[in-house]
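hey team, just a heads up i'm posting the complex here instead of the shared drive bc the drive is being weird again. everything in one block, sequence lines first with there labels, then the predicted structure for the whole assembly after. its two chains so it's a bit long, scroll down
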Amino acid sequence: MKATAVSTRKMKTMSAGELEAIEQEALRDYEEIKSRGMSLNMSRGIPCVEQLDLALGVLEALHARSEFANSNGDDCRNYGVWNGLLEMREIFSELLGVPADQIILGNNSSLQMMFDTISQGFTHGCGGHTPWCRQGEVKFLCPSPGYDRHFAVTEYFGIKMLPVPMLPTGPDMDMIEELCKDPSVKGCWCVPKYSNPTGVTYSDETVRRFARLHPAAPDFRIMWDNAYCVHDLTDEPAELLNIYDECVKEGTEDQVIIFASTSKISFPGAGVAALASSAKTIASLKGRTTVQTIGSDKLNQLRHVLFLHDADGVKSLMKGHRQILAPKFRIVLDALERELGGLGIARWSNPKGGYFVCLDVLEGCAKRVVGLCREAGVTLTDAGATYPYGNDPHDSNIRIAPSFPPQEELRDAMELLCVAIKLAAAEKLLAGRG
Amino acid sequence: MKATAVSTRKMKTMSAGELEAIEQEALRDYEEIKSRGMSLNMSRGIPCVEQLDLALGVLEALHARSEFANSNGDDCRNYGVWNGLLEMREIFSELLGVPADQIILGNNSSLQMMFDTISQGFTHGCGGHTPWCRQGEVKFLCPSPGYDRHFAVTEYFGIKMLPVPMLPTGPDMDMIEELCKDPSVKGCWCVPKYSNPTGVTYSDETVRRFARLHPAAPDFRIMWDNAYCVHDLTDEPAELLNIYDECVKEGTEDQVIIFASTSKISFPGAGVAALASSAKTIASLKGRTTVQTIGSDKLNQLRHVLFLHDADGVKSLMKGHRQILAPKFRIVLDALERELGGLGIARWSNPKGGYFVCLDVLEGCAKRVVGLCREAGVTLTDAGATYPYGNDPHDSNIRIAPSFPPQEELRDAMELLCVAIKLAAAEKLLAGRG
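-- predicted structure starts here --
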């Protein structure tokens, strides 16, 4: 495929003839790429094989008999220890800045712990208040674009989702404070660091405003999904203020529930998930957790403790992830800049961490772009998926997940994506001239 | 302590003087045992260290890189495969007699899968019917004595529990068929093989009557907890009819949900749990499960596949468990026979498998016996725990869990238990003479 010949003038300012020339060229390029018969799924933020290999030591960690007893003398193979191994809770304690005895370990999925938290609110209520299922319509705030699986959980329980725009500082806190005056608003989803998909890390002021939030609903909960707490990609990692400390200052610590996992530290399918909150919230969760299970998988926790040792061990491991991921993000950003820079048909994030590049194409073009890519063999996250009910009001947001494909395939995929964006933009602008 | 001097005459036929002599002797023996300062928790059916060691191979199974890919080519370390590894589902398929594609693997806890099933009925309903939480009072049938954790789950959701007597053939099916005419009765707990705690295996006729059940409630579910499906203790293992096959014959297969796990095959804290049901029920569960998690721990499933190989591997492993457990059951049964045989103050089961000996002492004596043992350092399952709401109407049932203590400690504990039973019986009978 020859180098693209378009100028860097904004496409909106071009004549119909110029746009048609771009459309024709993009169409030719698209057909050429399509003929390569690519087959690549980039729909999710999935670590690649090289990343998984970084944590092979987890599997080698458990051998000697003496290692089955943890510091309390419990045999990690047996039943018991409802909140999980202390040693693993201590690692999360360091990472999240919450005391280890206010942490509950789950199995391999923090999503499952979030689902369960929402389920508890629905059937049993939060903080001793009426269960949400007995309160008529209840609502949740959904900073958008956001994480589709959060939205899927809320939708599953029939909770009405209210989108809140994401700003460079985090969710629009003016709007959140306003919406919280409605007592039927029961919570807010947050990915506070390297947010999925925008890459935004909440500013100190945003975190403080969450801590100072006094919603009309006494059973309001901030679902603080700190999924990317140690997932830096640059030498200038974002610093996230500790929401728990801020909440303690404000006396609102029962209101926040923090989630994290080692899914993107060790293994996505076999990591350790954690939930952290106030002592009061943990005490109330104990009543539920001990009915639900006789304990999470302590052997897997022990494996992780033996391999990671402590928060420093985690951070050192994350440097390996960065070495693998940063070049892939570079490929994505370079392609976007090279192919689309100056055309005025796309904007994108330059994240300092996390798993995504957030792309906004011309209004009304995202579905078309994702469709064109799919037709040519590259599956992106569905257009709209980053909004509640899959409804992107501008049909412009596309989530790019660079982690999984090998670099060569990623380059090809980006070539395809950029051509698709140009094609869709030309079509759109020409139709507008119609 | 000298050998007991009581005759084997039924204590109820004894004179007050004779009873007083027994009471005095039992009291002396009790004080002597108490002075030993025992400390033993026998409250739960927990495998002992020697049993856990049988499955050490699970931990050694995973090394070579090539083993991370399962037969579908998925990397077991990564996200995905919502229903779990096919190879592990095939092992459960052999054990449970349900097709592998109608099995969903969970993490380490079948209890958690049961909790989740009840939770689903409560919030979303079963088979497309109105959620239980919108139906007013709903009820569950609880064959009793039964498993306290089942009852705790039902109680947690505010579901009214109706006890149903256990007969030697399983639950009283006449009563179950009658109670099922009430459309607010939504399900029944079952431990069909080596039932907890009675040791009863449901007769073929009982299984068939469950399969033929046509409850008034269309959203009725049989919670078939086959926890002890391969847990034989003798050369004459009980044979349980395959409920799934029977339900298919009757067209009622959507009505039964089968649970099992390797908790008492490999590791209680790090085994693999499974749920099996009809294709229709599994399809409806897929919608829930894929919102809840991106998949269970496939590495742990792979470990189990590599160690167990197949159902024959499981059965061969279970022979090792039997070798360790059978002598402990012998100790319990011998002590009961030797110390209490013929006195008419206790009856007990002689189970062919499972984890418990089921003991019935004189009416009104179970709490006293358990209290006496606790005071002397041996914690038994709480009296009443085997009944809904912890309420044993006769205060007579005690669950003995012989698996965990070393043989010597078990002998001492049984000595204590028998003395406590005699003491409580003498007290009771003397009070009756009052």
